Amino acid sequence: MSSIAIGADDAALELKNLIKQFLQDKNIDVSDYSNDAQNDKPIYPDIAWTVANAVKDGKHQRGILICGTGIGMAIVANKVPGIRAAQCHDTYSAERARKSNNAQIMTLGARVIGPELARSIVNSWLNSEFEGGGSTEKVDKISYYEQAVSEK
Fold first, then answer.
1. Which pTM value belongs to this model?
2. Is the separation of the CB atoms in 43 and 9 below 8 Å?
3. Sign of the dihedral defined by the CA atoms of residues 97, 121, 44, 60, in that order
4. Would you say 33 and 27 are in contact if contact means Cβ atoms under 8 Å apart?
5. Region of residue 30 (left: phi > 0; alpha: psi -120 to 50; beta: else)
6. What are phi and psi of 102, to 5 degrees?
7. Nearest to 102 by CA among 123, 133, 75
8. Choosing from 19, 67, 80, 122, which is the catalytic residue?
């Protein structure tokens, strides 16, 4: 993993800093799009949109978005065509987000999980890759529906 975009709003800066350091300790390049790293103090929809587009455009292999619950960030990131963002609050869902759904972005809730669990979740997600197989047809169908919506 060579590059990850990270973004957090003001409700999640402490957890973001912990995860950012965790990634850097693994020698992963991290680009921070967070509320505290930007001069204009964007709100979470702006942060999620920017990170999701950076991943879609190939600037980063994956992205991690963090807000109070992870819900809002997931909703916004999934509005970007070609992006699959998954809210992950346990290691199994993080693993399956990658292996079954080929999610390029994970979202976390700073008010939902603690620091040790967050590290474990991120680690599971980092160590998982899309398995293809029976999941390929499902991910392809997601892309099909996404394309159908964009053509309307």
1. 0.92
2. yes
3. negative
4. no
5. beta
6. 50, 40
7. 133
8. 67
